[in-house]
Amino acid sequence: MAVYTDITETELSALLAEYGIGELRSYRGIAEGSENSNYMLHTSSGEFILTLYEKRVEREDLPFFLGLMQHLANKGISCPLPVQRRDGGLMSEIAGRPAAIITFIEGFWVRRPSAAHCREVGKALAELHRAGEDFGLSRENAMAIPGWKKLWNGARERADEVEPGLAGEVESDFAALEAGWPSGLPEGVIHADLFPDNVFFLGDRLSGLIDFYFACNDFYAYDLATCLNAWCFEKDFSFNLTKGSALLAGYQSVRKLEPTEAQALPVLAHGSALRFLMTRLYDWLHVPDGAMIQKRDPKEFLRRVRFHRAIDSASEYGLDA
Fold first, then answer.
1. Bridge partner residues of 125 (DSSP)
2. If 0-12 CB within 10 Å is exposed, 13-18 middle and 19+ buried, where does residue 289 land?
3. What HEC string does 19-33 produce?
């Protein structure tokens, strides 16, 4: 979450008149995040989050994102529920941006996840996959291999500025992943971006999942592989086997992986790490300092890519036989 577009109290009061959530008491911007503008709203009936969708979110994708949150919340998944306008719609506009108001989820995101946190995340991810099985809309994964390659085409010539020899490394990764990418695995709605700052906890208890704006349809095991990348590496880039084992056990306590999924986990984790390397690399090279998009060090995911290249079996992530 973050703030890139300022709004006035007059604009906000006019927007709230289209909803049945009371009068504005106060509001403030939420600084964290990298994609959209977010505000905490305090009204006479409670607390809410206002999100203004910035340039990286396509307006035509919003019915999928908002409908998915509504579907999951109605299925018992602890996630924000889009608030309906008085006319029944979920989308609005403010300050020239498409916008939505969603319910507030209490909790905080953990900077140093424990194995207990990882187990809860694995369990919640599997519950999300189960709950989304009968969601009526679908969205292609815009950040599948063709999307990575598009970013790479815009970064290849300058990649060695970030790390000498990086261009050759990445070309080899693409060749290996395109040749070995699995097909026919179980698939459905995935979160696709379940990093620690998108999961709230109260102590060791998971209190909510947020930020569904990369959600799409793809392999369930790919979503799980992304969580391995997001939750199980330490600050020194080493993989924490205890955390990996806990995350995978939590997932399988709800949804057992099929043998083909377990077999594919190393290549999916390799691909997931490359996907985040590509977005970070592209932004690192093309986005000026102080711009809307928050730049993050691509080398963090380069180290993950290198780790996954050497993995032969899901047991090396902590998956029990």
1. none
2. exposed
3. ECCCCEEEEEECCCC
Query: Which helix (DSSP H) or strand (DSSP E) does residue 259 occupy?
Result: helix 259-286
According to DSSP, the residues that pair with 101 across neighbouring strands are: 50
Classify domain 9-103 by CATH architecture: 2-Layer Sandwich (3.30)
Strands 97-103 and 24-29: unpaired
User: pLDDT tens for residues 210-249?
Assistant: 999 999 999 999 999 999 999 999 999 999 999 999 999 9
Our CA angle for 192, 193, 195, nearest 5°, is 140
C-beta separation of 237 from 303 below 8 A? yes
DSSP 43: E
* The CATH number of domain 115-317, selected from 3.20.20.370, 3.40.250.10, 3.90.1200.10, 3.40.50.300: 3.90.1200.10
* Paired tokens of 75: 């299925």
pTM over 0.90, yes/no: yes
Q: Taking a C-beta distance cutoff of 8 angstroms, is the pair 267, 182 a contact?
A: yes
Task: DSSP for 95-147, please give it.
Answer: TTEEEEEEE----B--SS--HHHHHHHHHHHHHHHHHGGG-S---B-TTSHHH
**At residue 196, what is the residue type?**
P
Alpha carbon of 252 to those of 224, 249, 272, 316: distances in Å? 11, 5, 20, 16
With 0-12 CB in 10 A as exposed, 13-18 as middle and 19+ as buried, what is 61?
middle
Q: Give CA–CA dist 252/256, Å, rounded.
A: 4
Tell me the pLDDT tens digit for each residue of 290-311: 545 567 889 999 999 999 999 9
Among residues 209, 194, 217, the alpha carbon closest in space to that of 64 is found at 217
Q: Which residues of 113-145 are buried (b: 16+ CB within 10 A; e: fewer)?
A: bebbbbbbbbbbbbbbbebbeebeeebebebbe
Q: Which distant-in-sequence residues (6+ apart) come within 8 Å of 307 by Cβ? A: 233, 237, 239, 273
